[in-house]
Amino acid sequence: MKQRDDSNKQDVTYQQYLKAVGDLKSQGLPPSVRSVQKIIGGSNSTILEYQRKMQADVAMASTVEDGISDTLKQSLLAEFGRVVQSTRERLESQLAQERQQLKEANELLTEAEGRQTELEAQRQEENQQNTDKILILEKQLSATQERVTELQNQVDKLEQHLKESITAQEFARTEAAKSKLQLERADKDTEKAENRSKTLEARVSELQKQAHQAEIKSAVAEARVGELEKQITKNK
After folding, report:
1. Selection from 128, 70, 96 nearest residue 3 by Cα
2. Which candidate in 31, 119, 123, 167 could, as Cys together with 21 as Cys, close a disulfide (CB 3.0–4.6 Å)?
3. What span, in angstroms and rounded, lies between the C-alpha atoms of 14 and 57?
4. Is the Cβ–Cβ distance between 21 and 34 less than 8 Å?
5. H/E/C letters for each residue in 12-66?
6. Each residue of 38-62: pLDDT tens digit?
7. 211 to each of 198, 202, 204, 226, how far by Cα in Å?
8. How far is residue 189 from each of residues 178, 184, 195, measured CA to CA in Å?
């Protein structure tokens, strides 16, 4: 609606309105909105705006001394209106440019806000992904630490088992050394026993020989005793 009024303002100028009002007054006709609109066209809002502006200009011009003629007042009023209209058009042009710049700035702001929202959503998504990754890594780290603890326990057990094995081996070597020493001693004792056994066997053999000789001598003695007994018997 405002854009249509601005277009009508560009088509119908304040100068045209003042000229139409002057023509109507010269004809003895009241410069109403409809009568002016029949001459120059334009929208009701534009004609009403120009009408209020003219009334304000007339009120301002009425403060000027009455020595000025109506024609000069009208000319001054028209010139004043032209300057005001020119200034208004220039200001409206600047305002239109500023509005366009503001519109572009708003569009850029909207685009930036959209981009910011998109980036914020992306950042939140990345944060969520990073949070999920951190949770996964923490779980993996926890599992790894548990596995490391388990392996460390196994290593400790193996080290303890190794120590026990080394201790057992050292004990076995000590016992083996003792057994070897005892075996060497047993071998020496066996050798001594064997030597003593051989000595005893020799002694026994010698005694057996002596006993055999004694038996022979005993038999010979018994035989001689028998012969002597026989002789004694005969002699009796």
Report:
1. 96
2. 31
3. 12
4. no
5. CCHHHHHHHHHHHHHCCCCCCHHHHHHHHCCCHHHHHHHHHHHHHHHHHHCCCCC
6. 999 989 999 999 999 988 887 776 6
7. 19, 14, 10, 22
8. 16, 8, 10
